[in-house]
Amino acid sequence: MNVKSNGGLLHGTPSITIAGGVANSDSTTPDKSEASLYPTPSFTHPDLSLSSQLCVNHQRNNSAYSANVSLIDIYGADSIIELSPKKAQETETPMNANILDSLDTEEGDTTDELSVQNKVSKSFSTNRTISTSSIIPPGSVKSSDYESEMKRMLLPYPMSISKVQDILNSEFDMYGFKKETSLHVISRQRYDSWFKDYSEYLNNRQKKWELLMRANGLSVRTGQIPTRFPPKSDKVKKMIRRGIPPEWRGNAWFFYAGGYEKLNKHTGIYAQIIEDTRGLNNKDTEVIERDLNRTFPDNILFNEMVVTKLSKTSSTSFTNVENESETPMIQSLRRVLVAFSYYQPQIGYCQSLNFLAGMLLLFMDEERAFWMLVILTERIIPNVHSKDLEGVHTDQGVLMLTVKEYIPSLWSILGRTYDGEILEKDKILTRLPPVTLVTSSWFMSLFVGILPIETTLRVWDILWYEGSKTVFRVSLTVCKMCLEDPDFQRTGSSSTMGVETEQIELFQFLQNYPKCLLDPNEVVDKCFKKIGGYGFGSISQDEINHCRDFVSKQRAKMKDRKLSALNAELTDEERSILLANSNFDNEIHDVYGFHRSIMSGVVWNRNISSKMKKKFSRKHSTD
Amino acid sequence: MSDTKGKLRKYKIVFLGDQSVGKTSLITRFMYDTFDEQYAATIGIDFLLKTVYLEDNQTIRLQLWDTAGQERFRLLIPSYIRDSHVAVVCYDISNKRSFANLDKWISDVRLERGDEVLVVVVGTKSDLSNKRQVTSEEAEALCSRVGGAFFVETSTKANHNIKQLFKRIAQNLSGSSDENGVDNQAQDTAGTETIDISINTESVAPLRCC
């Protein structure tokens, strides 16, 4: 019936399912039949309301920055769930940052939300089912190498860590990616020697998670993947930072990112969009079409050729690649991206969304992947993929300000113009340092293709739980690790080539450096540990929001001044290109001051004592 | 362009053109002499560096800037092509649209750099001749209309004209080029692999961990 359970469709039997299918075998869902893959509209569970109250730090819309996000989309559904801060305060939670965030959220949107919800469910209550046969031609997958590789991956589910030996014997990791990355950045031997240890770590984490679940009254049966998770707490946050079990990832991401709220408010809409966009042909779909096979060409689920190529000789045959059969995953990816471009016309399709959607599809079904993309682009990294890429500039401005504040020694190297001129503190935003050309893609693809797979996934675990501050914290961590690398310092000091080339060499180093960070624990520990690490966990969402707000206001101001100064004879196109250039050369802007002292903000005072208590008690613990 | 001997001369080359015309593939063939059917889409920009030895014992350092092809990334053009010496604008010979868009790419370049930049027009995927939608005559005409330095058709799959492309760029840059000597390379040089640009192993990206 469905548009989404790839695995089942793949072999035409419901017994083999990819993450999305498995995800729905939750014992608490009333209807367990294969047919009810979506949570029903009435689906609620006790923890849901609690978790949503604690998610407020993702959902602030009272800053000028997030106000740029369109709140009403073409389906009339509101994009941002606003929650009553009163309830959030009543709930006992150790997540001090969340409480602080919730204090300045405004009350009173809940009724609007309900009415919109009703409107939506009325208009889109029909036509949810789409016949399988019309979407995926049966028997489209033939290669026997491919079949056997798929079998290993799909039984009992794709990313089983129980079959360590199978994974060690394979060319592919547990997610279907080729272990050896392009240009041999990571060799298969290196991967295997790392994975041997890491698989033990994964097993230990799995056990710890099962204990955590039981302690929260959530049942965990062997071989089943939970759909409900413990409410947010310091304990859970720590568990998340140490990694979600691979099989649970999709459901946990969805749960903590507020996926259920989104899904339940928009029941049936995804299926409706799929209907509406069938055969759609426009600029976006053309671009999407060209990116489908360029998403994960080294993943077996996206490109079966990656297997057959292994058994082939090196002489490449000149067969027509376009005639090769598509994997079901490619078809899912197409539907999700087309649906998204149609649902969010202000974004449409932006390259890098393919990586985000592709990664999500490895862990959840199409409908959920679709809503996660919506959540991501509305709440977590707004405007980053919009037509003017304004969010990219904003977030790069924020990142540069944080680099200057938190890694001054790196700033003294990178905080320059192309010509090597040192950027004064009132010119950082007008003339964004060229290193942002490297770091922009970190934000657009959220480290997919930048960090190795498992490291990326560990970052995503944290991202969906803790929000956008994670991207900044991890970016700073990668930068600082890179800075401390002896090779980076050597590259920087061999300055026989003049300032500009020296900078380019450093950029190239920084660009390639994250690809080597195979051990996720190293990155996560560096990021969060206060002793032996960088302690970037102290950069709060509040700080990031303030800073984003500041940067976007400054950019708007500069844009206005620039616009009025621009020659009227220019065409719109020329003007937009001139405007897009961050070099407003002689412009200056206000100087941003970080609120690093906990005494600085007014809102902080109400909770200051409890926060201090926690701060001091935490000093004695290891983490 | 540059004259001091002994000192390593550096040039910045930016690769522009529509999405999936094969910019990354072109650069990868030149850098590592490898070919894959599919490369992951480039997001934002990729920096690559390569030292090239020319026939007259000169050494130059090339900075290759690989860019994303989707239209909205054109907004980043000014920051890409600042200080660039060469803009290699690429189209796919089997895709008329990508050829039609060359004008846009070139005007972006001219708007930012005027005549201070060498524009090179490159047709990619010349092995797909049975699907050809753009003739080499059309491209040649466009190249001279926009004041491009030269035009060449390439195939990374068949390893056709890749080294020639970079050799001609290098010759144009060093000013030592004998234009007539290489004029016919666009047509047919698949067999002749005698190229003086040697691959410098040191230039393989500085990754410390393999």
Kindly describe this structure:
The complex is a heterodimer of chains A (623) and B (210). With 623 residues, chain A is mostly helical. Among the domains of chain A are: 3-244, no CATH class; 390-544 and 604-622, Cyclin A, domain 1. Chain A has helices at 6-11, 19-23, 46-54, 85-90, 96-103, 110-123, 132-135, 144-154, 164-169, 188-215, 234-241, 249-256, 259-265, 269-276, 283-292, 305-311, 328-343, 353-361, 366-380, 390-406, 408-414, 436-444, 453-466, 469-484, 486-493, 499-512, 520-528, 541-565, 572-580, 608-620. Residues 1-143, 154-158, 310-323 and 598-606 of chain A have low confidence and may be disordered. Chain B is of the alpha/beta class and 210 residues long. Chain B has one domain: P-loop containing nucleotide triphosphate hydrolases (Rossmann fold). Chain B has helices at 23-32, 77-81, 96-100, 102-113, 136-145, 162-174; strands at 9-17, 45-53, 59-67, 86-92, 118-124, 150-153. In chain B, strand 5, helix 5 and strand 6 (150-153) form a beta-alpha-beta unit. Chain B is globular, with a radius of gyration of 16 Å. At the A-B interface, helix 15, helix 22, helix 26 and helix 29 of A face strand 2, helix 2 and helix 4 of B.
Topology:
The complex is a heterodimer of chains A (623) and B (210).
Chain A lengths: L5 H6 L7 H5 L22 H9 L30 H6 L5 H8 L6 H14 L8 H4 L8 H11 L9 H6 L18 H28 L18 H8 L7 H8 L2 H7 L3 H8 L6 H10 L12 H7 L16 H16 L9 H9 L4 H15 L9 H17 L1 H7 L21 H9 L8 H14 L2 H16 L1 H8 L5 H14 L7 H9 L12 H25 L6 H9 L27 H13 L3
Helix pairs in contact in A: 12-23, 15-17, 17-18, 17-19, 18-19, 20-21, 20-22, 20-24, 20-28, 23-24, 23-27, 24-27, 25-26
Chain B lengths: L8 E9 L5 H10 L12 E9 L5 E9 L9 H5 L4 E7 L3 H5 L1 H12 L4 E7 L11 H10 L4 E4 L8 H13 L36
Parallel strand pairs in B: 1-3, 1-4, 4-5, 5-6
Antiparallel strand pairs in B: 2-3
